[in-house]
Each structure stands twice: as C-alpha cells, then as structure tokens.
Design a protein that fits this description.
It contains three helices and no strands. The longest helix has 30 residues. It starts with 25 loop residues before the first helix and ends with a helix. Keywords: Membrane, Mitochondrion, Mitochondrion outer membrane, Protein transport, Receptor, Translocation, Transmembrane, Transmembrane helix, Transport. It is a single-pass membrane protein.
C-alpha cells in the first residue's frame, strides 16, 4: 500500500493521474454498441405487458398533442 504523503506548497506539483500501467481501456469498450442495439436490449428487460402499456401511453400522448395543436392553430388562424 502506498504511503500517505503530506501535501504542502513546498512539496511541488502533484500528479493526479494513475501510472500508465494502471489505466484501463474500459472506456473504449462501452462504444461497441449502437444506440439502436442498446434500446433493443432494454426491451428484453421489461415484460410484454409493460411495453404494451408504455406504447399505448405514448400513442395516446402523441394523439392528444396533435389534437391540441390543431385546435390551437385553428383558434389563432381565425
């Protein structure tokens, strides 16, 4: 285990990066999947009933937004 050194202005600059042999290359491994692949993988986490309910909720929200937008645009165009 590394010894703890006292930090003082007289001790000079301190390196905060780990030695080169301790740096992991895990950051590159995270980018192997595309966004579509990650989203498809998420579908496997939830039961079919949850996915169906979420789909119905989104479809209803989109439909209500379209109706609201159509109503507002008609009200302001007159």
């Amino acid at each position: 285990m590394a010894a703890v050194e006292e930090l003082s202005p007289a001790s000079g600059p301190v390196s905060t990066q780990p030695p080169e042999d301790e740096i992991d290359d895990d950051e590159d491994e995270d980018m192997d999947e595309t966004l579509a692949e990650r989203l498809w993988g998420l579908t496997e986490m939830f039961p079919d009933t949850v996915r169906t309910a979420a789909d119905a909720s989104v479809q209803c929200s989109v439909s209500l937004f379209k109706k609201f937008y159509r109503c507002v645009s008609q009200c302001y165009s007159n």
